[in-house]
């Protein structure tokens, strides 16, 4: 029986919101290649890179991240989700919105992310907030 995609997606969101790197890693592909395209257009190409970035990000307890699923498509062994999320670098920072597209594939009976693409709705504001957060 195919696992529930919506449950897997929520579990991934929970890993981010709770800064749980082990749960985050559990939702990422076991393949050597995974493209993650971030707001400035840079493409990371391995799961290890994106896990390392999240490991560092999760150490910061000031930010908040809230997601809303806009659209999903679930096939036999592939699925995708279009998500809109709100990010705040600090409680007093402006809220920034981004689009996020995840592509999942069934691997050993579990949904795993094989592609991740972020697009900031207001990139200049996003870039400014990131430089001020350092």
What's the helix and strand layout?
Blueprint: H1 5-17, H2 21-26, E1 35-37, E2 43-44, H3 47-58, E3 64-74, E4 78-88, E5 96-107, E6 110-120, H4 123-132
Parallel strand pairs: 1-6
Antiparallel strand pairs: 1-2, 3-4, 4-5, 5-6
Structure, explained:
- The chain is an alpha+beta fold.
- The protein has one domain (5-132): Nuclear Transport Factor 2, Chain: A.
- It is 31% helix and 37% strand.
- Strands 2-1-6-5-4-3 form a six-stranded mixed sheet.
- A hairpin with a 7-residue loop joins strand 4 (78-88) and strand 5 (96-107).
- The chain is globular, with a radius of gyration of 15 Å.
- 18% of the residues are buried.
Short key terms for the protein model shown above:
Nuclear Transport Factor 2, Chain: A; alpha+beta; 4 helices; globular; 6-stranded mixed beta sheet; 37% strand; single chain; 134 residues
CATH architecture descriptor name: Roll
For this structure, what is the CATH class? Alpha Beta
Q: Give the low-pLDDT segments.
A: none
Arithmetic mean of pLDDT = 93
Q: How would you sum up the major sheet?
A: 6 strands, mixed
Short description:
The protein is α+β, with helices and mostly antiparallel strands.
């Amino acid at each position: 029986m195919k696992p529930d995609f919506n449950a897997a997606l929520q579990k991934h969101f929970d890993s981010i919101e709770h800064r749980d790197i082990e749960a985050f890693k559990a939702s990422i592909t076991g393949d050597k290649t995974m493209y993650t395209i971030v707001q400035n257009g840079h493409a990371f190409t391995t799961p290890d890179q994106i896990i390392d970035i999240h490991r560092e990000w999760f150490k910061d307890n000031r930010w908040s991240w809230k997601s809303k699923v806009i659209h999903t498509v679930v096939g036999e062994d592939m699925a995708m989700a279009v998500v809109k999320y709100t990010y705040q670098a600090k409680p007093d920072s402006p809220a920034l919105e981004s689009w996020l597209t995840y592509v999942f594939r069934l691997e050993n009976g579990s949904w795993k992310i094989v592609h991740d693409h972020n697009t900031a709705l207001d990139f200049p504001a996003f870039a400014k907030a990131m430089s001020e957060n350092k």
